[in-house]
Amino acid sequence: MAGVLVVIEQRDGVIKRVSYEALTAARTLADAMQGSVTALLAGPPGVDASSLGTYGADRVVVAGDEQLRLYQPGAYAAAVVRQARQEAPGAVVLSATALGKDLGPRLAARLGCALASDVTAVAVDQGQITVSRPAYAGKALYRLRITSQPCVVTIRPNSVTPAEQRRTPIEEQMPAPALDDSVKTVAIKEPPGAKVDVAEASVIVSGGRGLKEPANFQLLEELAAAIGGAAVGASRAVVDAGWRPHADQVGQTGKTVSPNLYIAVGISGAIQHIAGMRNAKVIVAINKDRDAPIFKIADYGIVGDLFEIVPRLTQEIKQLRAG
Amino acid sequence: MPLKIAVCIKRVPDTETRIKPAADGKSIDEAGVKFVLNPYDEFAVEEALRRRDGAGGGEVVVLSLGSDAAQETIRTALAMGADRGVLLKCETLVPDALAVARVMAEELRGGAYDLILFGKLAIDDYNHAVGPMVAELLELPCVTAVTSLELKDGAGIAEREIEGGVEVVEFTLPAVLTADKGLNEPRYPALKGIMAAKKKPLDVKPVQLSSSGIEVLELALPAERKAGRIVGEGPDAVPALIEALRHEAKVL
Prior knowledge:
Low-confidence stretches of chain B: none
Order of helices and strands of chain B: EEEHEHEHEHEEEEHEEEH
Oligomer: heterodimer
Shape of chain A: globular
């Protein structure tokens, strides 16, 4: 009869899409354990939390305070721990985002329980939670059994499809915990023209050395814009060469991603790169070398000059979108 | 003011390694695998060396948990310029971050470190967890995935990468930080450093891990991707690709 506590993320007062994925995973666990789902939202006052019931929250607890607009590790951890001590849930679920990767371990340490991070699937087997998670950046897959109660589970973005399971949740307010003076987030700096992050994007257009020079990434930016809401990623080679920021790197020493569509342009497909993107649902490769390893894992490939193929692809997708 | 810095590092398979599950089906077959200092830990070691030297002195202590083989990894960090090493020796490593964090925190407790540095993640388990867990266990402030760092008068400002932006975080020392790519450009050990490293102290202390409640049922290779197809050559193949993405894969 254990319930599940799920940590909801907001940015600028708007709930992030990944939180519905975490909520869906929480609902799966709670149903299997015959428990209920409590969604905890820390953020500024007045965040619209009505959508949380739509995705299966039985109860919504809000710590709304201007001081919690930005992620404050100490106060956020204190809020979740307070709620967890009250409810004694079977699991605390977060998204494996920048926030979740920071907060999840803190919670496990404070609660003295197991952490399963970057989980792609959850289940309950004979009353115990089992999870799947990639290891070696996706070159292998762990299946783990968790025997501590509670436990902390972070869900990898794009691995659970949000499912509507309408409830009318009870909503409560929680007084905001005091900020920790020893570590304070003071600002978020955003680059101009709000980019989609590769870790969260459902479509990624990635480029490698085949692009020949940094300025040519413009071709990929245009393709991503034509698709709409797509992120532009990069191989390690071009990040190490300083062509693209590290934040865009896909691979074992960059980000491991699982978008619906991954378009690899001028990327040969080194083992460490493939490790980072092999969980994409559909992979497209565009490369001049017919023998490039990327074609061995791609669902669809075009052999040829990317400088001719990519503009054509952009143009056709634009027409499609306009039509 | 001299800085006393601990850097926690891990021995991991090189990124070019092909992973093969061992006979037990729960770990990897290490035969023929090349092991290296975890790439993110290189940023942590480099940062520690720069901070020590910038402060005009102090000590950089390298700490690792693992089998005897991890001594070689510690020597790599010593060859880069760290002062001494400590191996917390245990035979089998499990993907149980809290179990690891507990023995590391125990070793670090009372060490009077100004800074405790980690890589933001180890490229084997990908947990991102031991650093912030150690911070919590020691009740120290912590900033993870740091790409930029300024220290002044017992306090610091760090930048950490988040989705589509950068968080600016202020903290006080002593603190735990985990290093991300971009923080610095790690040096390669010079021959002189490699020779000197052989003579630097390296303590070996046996430890016992106690599970936090996580158990490996299986380590398997991911399902092979179904063989795809080349839809064509050159720009004329684009319409066929779009057709396939729309009607077959249904992702466009």
